[in-house]
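Sequence only, no structure available. Ideas?
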Amino acid sequence: MYSSDLSASEVLAAEARRTGTSDAAFKSVCYQAHVANYGWQDWVCNGWAAGTEGKNSAIEKVRITMSGNGRFCAQAHVRNYGWLDQDCEAQGGFVEVGTTGLATPMEALGVWTENGGMLRAQGHVQNIGWMTPTVWGYGHTIGTTGRGLSLEAIRLWV
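Reply:
I predicted one. Tokens follow.
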């Protein structure tokens, strides 16, 4: 949807223009996935899928930016490493979780807002497909852990 070369703030500004929403009322989440064998994909926002389906190519790393929900955090569960450190940022900045260059698929992803803002998410998991969407608060995840199944695509929306 938006070039992978854009910064987080440029992506949020472009999404605000696309939706015709004023900055004061603008709530949005945009994200991009680094996928095995493909590299960084373009940024997508508000429910569009990032990643692949049916290509057996795992998400390895994710970048997420938000507006209108205050401070937010993300954490990745990566094969052979488990849960990595969380990354938190103020709205308009971006978090980046996962790995690149290690051939370690992401198996699960957690994202939350620190002020309890509403966020929904859905994951596409290897051999399972799209899982039931989740309303997130602290500690909820999409994907699986301990099953050796890769997270292949994600959808986030506010």
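The mean pLDDT is 89.
Hope that gets you unstuck.
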